[in-house]
Sequence to fold (203 residues):
Amino acid sequence: FSQQITSLGSPCNYEDIIFICDTSGSMKRNSKINSMTNFVNQIISNIQDSQVSRNIGIISFKQDSEWIIKMKSSKSFPYPLENDFFESSGMTNFDSWIKLIRKLQKPSFLVLISDMDTNIQNKNKYIPILKKHFFYQIILPPGNKYTSESLNHISNGYGQYFLSETKGSISKKITQKLSSLLTTPRPQLICYQTHSRYHPIKD
Fold:
């Protein structure tokens, strides 16, 4: 797109980042839980190095979900997380984190980290959430590509999913890409009558 058209999009410089972390039993395999911890640490480090102001929180989910770190400024965030910070056990109730996200007042960056070892029963419940927030998915093996693509479709282009090609780890390329997405304002188009978002303008 030309610069003239790109400038029509209002910059979405969201300040809040919420990591939604799968801590179910399947994340123990192949050191996925450790890879998730290292990934979150690296993203936070990159945000701090960028000098961009962000608020960061962490939600864990398995059979239920909870805030394990409520929203804090990136400058005061308890970094780095210890290797045993996340406790992995139990079954996956993938829908459990929705109830916490519904309570958010501000549009935010949501970063889901999971091996997607589950299926979603009712995708309609995700629509009001993913229409409001930017939604990024980091999918570790085995991964459920169908579920990831479905959620990505619901977000109407306001997000992206990354499939890790290496068993149990998240590549440096994915880390760098997401760090850029979380620290750089992205243009978006808003309908002035309905206030709904159109597809974002791509780079």
